[in-house]
Specification:
The protein has 156 residues and is α/β, with parallel strands linked by helices. The chain is built from 5 helices and 5 strands.
Length: 156
């Protein structure tokens, strides 16, 4: 076995800002579900992504233009917002933007989402009956990261 001896790398703790890298990629969560927000915060922190939570009173179209997200995750039928309206705004912003819709297993909502996806020409919609497991969410975000060019998200 070959070994290379090396001294420990000295860190200059007077400049802690130099030890942090900028986060790449932004994910927009359009949901009022506090459990979904907490889960997304954990996954986005792990993947070093920015998370923007959009409440019902926020203008989603302005948020999309300002934040330029790599993906959107949305409830399809929340208490205070309409996921179908969100799909329409996303289609106007960028029909190729990866979108994950949380349908809560409602067959009628899933069928309506399929129809609206086709009508507005959305090309990257994923439907899920509940909040996805961590592995499914990471896979969705890796795919979105590759599509958006966030190369730090490409698995090696």
């Amino acid at each position: 076995m070959n070994m290379i001896a090396a001294d420990d790398l000295a860190l200059d703790y007077r400049f802690p800002g130099t030890l942090r890298a900028e986060k790449q990629g932004c994910v927009v969560l359009f949901s009022d579900n506090t459990d979904a927000v907490a889960r997304m915060e954990t996954v986005c922190e792990f993947l070093d992504l920015k998370l923007e939570c959009v409440s019902a009173g926020t203008d989603l179209a302005d948020m999309l233009r300002a934040r330029r997200p790599m993906a959107v995750i949305s409830d399809i039928d929340g208490d205070d917002h309409d996921g179908f309206h969100a799909m329409k705004l996303i289609a106007r912003y960028n029909p190729d933007l990866p979108v994950m819709l949380l349908t809560d297993g409602d067959i009628a909502l899933m069928g309506a989402a399929d129809a609206i996806q086709e009508i507005w020409g959305l090309t990257a919609v994923t439907l899920t009956s509940g909040f996805p497991l961590a592995g499914q969410l990471v896979s969705f975000l890796f795919s979105a990261g590759r599509k958006a060019g966030c190369m730090r998200l490409v698995p090696v």
